[in-house]
Amino acid sequence: MGKIVKVEIDARPVKRADMRNGLFRVRLYDAAPTMPSSEFVDFPDEGLKKLGLEDGSAKKGQPLYLLIGKDKLTGLPKFTAIGTHFEAGKDGMGIYSW
After folding, report:
1. 95 and 86 in contact (C-beta within 8 Å)?
2. 3-state class of 56 per DSSP?
3. Is 10 exposed, middle or buried (0-12, 13-18, 19+ CB in 10 A)?
4. pLDDT score of 25
5. Rounded to whole angstroms, what are the CA distances from 43 to 9, 66, 88?
6. What pTM, to 2 d.p., does this model score?
7. What b/e sequence results for 55-72 when a residue is b if at least 16 CB atoms lie within 10 Å of its CB, and e otherwise?
8. What pLDDT digit, counting tens, does each position of 16-47 carry?
9. 11 φ, ψ to 5°?
10. What's the rounded Cα separation, in Å, for the pair 88 and 8?
11. In 15-93, where do the E strands start and end?
12. Is 49 helix (H, G, I), strand (E, B) or coil?
């Protein structure tokens, strides 16, 4: 699978590129970086809309959970947004939602 991390994102507007698999790739910026940093992240349409990243209504410092995996072709890290909320289940598993 991969590792899941929680980050806080900056409220900059984004432009999305359709990845043709139900996800859209956007460039996100860290809300409180020690060094200026940005990463390309794959997002479902629902997540982009709920965070307000396209229409300018985004808030600074929003939490976001990312699944970090590896690209099958290049072996480079791949980031996929999976939600802004986490609920722990009784069986130790969790549910991520927008």
Report:
1. yes
2. coil
3. middle
4. 95
5. 13, 10, 22
6. 0.84
7. eeebeeebebbbbeeeee
8. 999 999 999 999 888 876 666 788 999 999 99
9. -95, 30
10. 20
11. 17-18, 23-29, 38-44, 62-70, 77-83, 85-88
12. helix
Interstrand relation of 38-44 and 94-97 (parallel, antiparallel or unpaired): unpaired
What would the pLDDT profile of 78-96 be if each residue is shown by its tens digit? 999 999 999 998 887 889 9
What DSSP state is assigned to residue 34?
Answer: S
Q: How confident is the model at residue 35, as a pLDDT?
A: 61
Sign of CA dihedral 26, 69, 86, 6: negative
Amino acid at 73: L
